[in-house]
Amino acid sequence: MLESIRRTTAYIQSRINGFEPEVGIILGTGLGALVNEIEIEKQLMYSNIPDFPISTLEFHSGKLIFGTLAGKKVVAMQGRLHYYEGYSIQQITFPVRIMKMLGIKTLLVSNASGALNPAYKKGDLMIIEDHINLQPDNPLRGNNDEELGPRFPDMSQPYRHDLIEKALEIAGKNSITCHQGIYVSVTGPNLETRAEYRYLRIIGGDAVGMSTVPEVIVANHMNLPVFAVSVLTDEGFPDELKPVSVEEIIAVAREAEPKMTLILKELIAQL
């Protein structure tokens, strides 16, 4: 893996003319419009980057965006990768390792997820304070390279408390409904059954999605501070469960996106 990381990093560096990003951003389903706020200096298609996996979803663009946002140099993934697309768990977390090697000091992650907590509503935001990993694999499984991180990384604070507090202050100041809760990561791509939603709530979940946790594990492995936020696009309440389509989920994500963008921009300005 280290050879691939070095090869990919060298290729990207040869294309971005000395640009050194401070902040990495992973944009979730229906949440790619944040790039419109970036003063773009360079864009690279995933398909042109050696060893870089390609997003297979029609609503994920598949670009690395380099530029300035809120006064900070950033690199944004417009289009994330998912385990259900058929990639290995190491492949979908590969971009996090590349962003770290490019120089980022903080990773910001967004996703679209389903609400499990009945106090939450569709269209609300939830800052992730902790997670439950129900993915079938771990990105750290296999031989460990000490250059990347320790064999047994600590996960007592996978999401930085200081960043959570700053984001909650920003939300409150701007009258944005923003919860703080536990995210459960599952494989997908199907949405959950009534019984599964009930189970996920019983084990402590406030929201459920199909991403984020593998990337956060790798970020912690590389000693990279993480902030993550979910846009709650549907409601997984067993006694009131209604069918939902991906199109509806994306529509809700896009409607709520300006609130998330405001929080991320102000948070980046304070880094």
From TrEMBL:
TM helices/strands, residue ranges: none
Functional description taken from the UniProt entry: The purine nucleoside phosphorylases catalyze the phosphorolytic breakdown of the N-glycosidic bond in the beta-(deoxy)ribonucleoside molecules, with the formation of the corresponding free purine bases and pentose-1-phosphate.
Keyword Isomerase on entry: no
Keywords assigned by UniProt, alphabetized: Glycosyltransferase, Phosphoprotein, Transferase
InterPro entries recorded: Nucleoside_phosphorylase_d, Nucleoside_phosphorylase_sf, Pur_Nuc_Pase_Ino/Guo-sp, Purine_phosphorylase
Gene Ontology molecular function terms on file: purine-nucleoside phosphorylase activity
Chain ranges of the Nucleoside phosphorylase domain: 23-269
Family note: Belongs to the PNP/MTAP phosphorylase family.
GO cellular component: cytoplasm
Organism from which the protein derives: Mucilaginibacter arboris
Protein name, per record: Purine nucleoside phosphorylase
Any GO BP: nucleoside metabolic process
The organism's taxonomic lineage, starting at the top: Bacteria, Pseudomonadati, Bacteroidota, Sphingobacteriia, Sphingobacteriales
PANTHER family in alphabetical order: METHYLTHIOADENOSINE/PURINE NUCLEOSIDE PHOSPHORYLASE, PURINE NUCLEOSIDE PHOSPHORYLASE-RELATED
Pathway: Purine metabolism; purine nucleoside salvage
Any single Pfam family the record assigns to this protein: PNP_UDP_1
Assigned EC number: 2.4.2.1
Enzyme kind, highest EC tier: transferase
